[in-house]
Each structure stands twice: as C-alpha cells, then as structure tokens.
Amino acid sequence: MRIEADLKLGFKDVLIRPKRSTLSSRSQVSLERTFKFRHTGRTWTGIPIMAANMDTVGTFAMAGALARHGLFTAVHKHYPVEEWETFAAARRTVGQDHLLANVAVSSGILDSDLDKLNRILERCPELACICLDVANGYSEHFVQQIGKVRAWHPDKIIMAGNVVTGEMVEQLLLSGADIVKVGIGPGSVCTTRVKTGVGYPQLSAIIECADAAHGLSGQIVSDGGCTCAGDVAKAFGAGADFVMLGGMLAGHDEGGGEILEQDGQRRVRFYGMSSRTAMEKYSGGVADYRASEGKTVSVPYRGPVEETLKDILGGLRSACTYVGASQLKELTKRTTFVRVSEQENPVFNE
C-alpha cells in the first residue's frame, strides 16, 4: 500500500482565468478541429463533442441531430445488425452523406460482441470508427482484444477505454487504439466510486492522460463529469481532444427514453449502462459475482436536442473569447486554471 499525496482536481475545483483577447465577437471562434489518427492515417474534421454510447443518449436519432452540427455520436451497442443496415442506407435518402463519418459503432470485448461488430462492419463498410467500451480498461484481456480488432480492421479508427492514468493510455495506444476514453466514476449515473472505492478526479485525469497520448500521436476523449457548458470548456482547456456527454444530452426526444408523468410534469428515465436497469434489460439481471455500478433516475423532459446544443456550443465559444482563443485547438494553450472553493453564487438556485 502507498499514498500519493499530489493534488488531484475535478471540474468543480477550478475556474479558467480570463486573458487579454483580440476577439470582438463569439462568432469569430471556430470550434472545428481536424485530427489525423495514429494507426490509420485517416482524418476527421468536426466539432469534437460526442454523445455517449448509452441507450437513451447514443441513439441513431441523436446521431442524425448531432451530425447536422458536425458533432459525433458513439452509438450504443444494443442495436441489432439489421437496424445498422437500415440506418446506413437511410442516411443517403435524407441527404446526410457525412453522417457515418460522425458515428462510432460500440462493442464490448466478449467473443459474441466482436462477432456482432464484425457483422455490422461487413454489412456497413462505410462506418469508419469503432468504440471498444469496458468499465475497466486495465485488463490484460482488454489490451489483447484491442490488438485483435486492430488486426481485423486496420483501416478503422479505434476508440477504447476507460482508463485514467498515463501509462495505461500509452499501453492502449501501442496495442492498436487511436483514441483512448478517459474517466472512471465521474458520470452522473455512475456509482463505481461508491461501490468500489476506485476512481480519479476527472480534470487531473485529462491533464495526465492527454500528455501521455499526445506524446504518441494519439488522442483522448474525456468521458463523464460534465454538468454544464463550463465543464466542457474546462475539459478542452485541460487537453482533451474530444469530450463525451451523457447526462447533459439525456431527456431529449432524440434519446428515445421512456417518458414518465410525475406530479403533472413529463420526465424521462435515464440510467447508467452498468445499472441494474440496464443489466435486467440486456443481460437478464445482475450476475451473482458482480454489483450494479449505476443509478436509475428521472430527468426533466427537454424536447429536441437543438437548444441544448446551442447552449453548449455558445458557452464553449464564449470561453474561447474570454482567453483569446480564436480556434478551439488554441484553448488548452491559452488556459490557466485557478483553484477555487466555489463556482457560483447559489442564492437563487432552486
């Protein structure tokens, strides 16, 4: 046993210090980025915010809505192969030829998961990105499975995780991943830290993992912990290449979640993918050897996702103007974090 005494920080522990700026309007800020990926040489251009691969967030409908703005969606792994075929074919009829470039097909690492992944990619070869998603990315078996998928699909972008430390980011990149998902326990409906005592403050995880990834020409996606547009800005300021959102995109029409009536108001059921709700839905219940590591909650019904996207992107542009970053890629170079004990004046919070 040992104790690391170095300070580790989450989003709530800091604010971004403003700096002199030559920008006169938020409209002058470009949020688009272009990335070239380590193993494939492929490039991607867009706004590097993505919907999480949760079944009430990372849906086909959400992918269509986000792609219109140049955002990305990690589609959840529970769609059958036939629905992927329909989705891939339908994008031609609705004039969204760019849609599949902004979508990842998600998979676990069981043999049955990888067999399904291969069948999807065989029938939908235009799909460019794979998301290999496990709760614990520190498993040697996970590392081996990444290498196997890389050998099978040398031309695909592989996003894999989750981890929170630099040495494991390096391992996953060297094993075949292009993008590493960073985050253990920060999500709004994740209870891993409570159930296991394991985790890492998200801001520090981003800083350390980004440094490791960029040294190997890889990228990271910050997965979890964002509660508002300001947190998204902090994640990019800390060095994240992509930011993945779950709870911030929950409750919208495009998520397709179950709508509930509570006290005369409409709400939407939202749950973690390691929750009892998800395991009963997809795995027949919680196995005897494990515990549920997710919550089931209801969130306010929020209608179409369009207004939420405007709020997030507007806040991010504003953050860039406060530090003089005319492009999103400049934000991390222009960011100085200051430690704080409070984020906002709560006097009128409901």
General form: globular
Low-confidence stretches: none
- The fraction of residues assigned to DSSP E strands is 15-25%
What's the total number of strands?
Answer: 15
Characterize the main sheet.
8 strands, parallel, barrel
Oligomer: single chain
Distance between the termini: 43 Å
* Average pLDDT, all residues: 94
State the helicity in percent bands.
Answer: 25-40%
Structural class: alpha/beta
Number of helices: 11
* Estimated radius of gyration: 20 Å
Query: Helix and strand string, N-terminal first?
Result: EEEEHEHEHEHEHEHHEHEEEHEHHE
Widest sheet: strand order? 4-5-6-7-8-9-10-11
What can you see in these coordinates?
- The protein is of the alpha/beta class and 350 residues long.
- Helices cover 32% and strands 19% of the residues.
- It has 11 helices and 15 strands.
- The strands form 4 sheets. It has an 8-stranded parallel β-barrel, surrounded by 6 helices.
- Helix 5 packs across helix 7 and helix 8 packs across helix 10 (306-323).
- The radius of gyration is 20 Å and the shape is globular.
- 44% of the residues are buried.
- The model has no long low-confidence stretch (mean pLDDT 94).
